Amino acid sequence: AQTVTQSQPEMSVQEAETVTLSCTYDTSESDYYLFWYKQPPSRQMILVIRQEAYKQQNATENRFSVNFQKAAKSFSLKISDSQLGDAAMYFCAYRSQWGGSEKLVFGKGMKLTVNP
Amino acid sequence: NAGVTQTPKFRVLKTGQSMTLLCAQDMNHEYMYWYRQDPGMGLRLIHYSVGEGTTAKGEVPDGYNVSRLKKQNFLLGLESAAPSQTSVYFCASSPSSGLGNQPQHFGDGTRLSIL
Q1: Average pLDDT for residues B12-22, to the nearest whole number?
Q2: How far is CA A66 from its chain centroid?
Q3: C-alpha R_g of chain A
Q4: A64-to-A48, A76, A82, B4, B19 alpha-carbon distances in Å
Q5: Quick check: B44 and A106 CB within 8 A?
Q6: 8 A C-beta contact, residue B64 and residue B74
């Protein structure tokens, strides 16, 4: 079974600076998808970014980018120019390409604090 | 555009009581999921459905039952609530792209407390 590990339960960053959230996963599959979700205090689960394992190019979405290292099974999220609204829980998630159910396996999450 | 709607948003139960959480989606998605979120545990899959009339067990199915009688609705039932089921419950849905790259869309969650 696949597992996702977020080893840092909490991090803090100064407003306007850059922060990197780490995520590692374990799988024997070669094709899969990785996601970062954000959960602000409102409790909503918001998709931040996704990465297809077959793509070598790292995904980017505005201030959010990933460093996908397939061989190392690492999928870190970089937030540039941090804003107060970035304060939230962040979850890394894995989805197998096969199986027909597209279930997500989540890490335990990491709480990001943004200091003004 | 409502997306995924969960009912109720909050509920307090006594041990042994039963209740049903309702999830409704208006995006015509084939797949639907129920997760629970506990502090320090992330989200864990309880049950899921790959289409109307189908259900399957996830990672933590014990103590829960589900039904998907209509494509747009996915119900989560607790037959005899236990304090260990105190949690925040999330419903999600996704299309059956067959590729896996379609994100799941989540409801706003239901906070359930069992006394």
Answers
A1: 96
A2: 8
A3: 14
A4: 8, 10, 10, 25, 40
A5: yes
A6: no
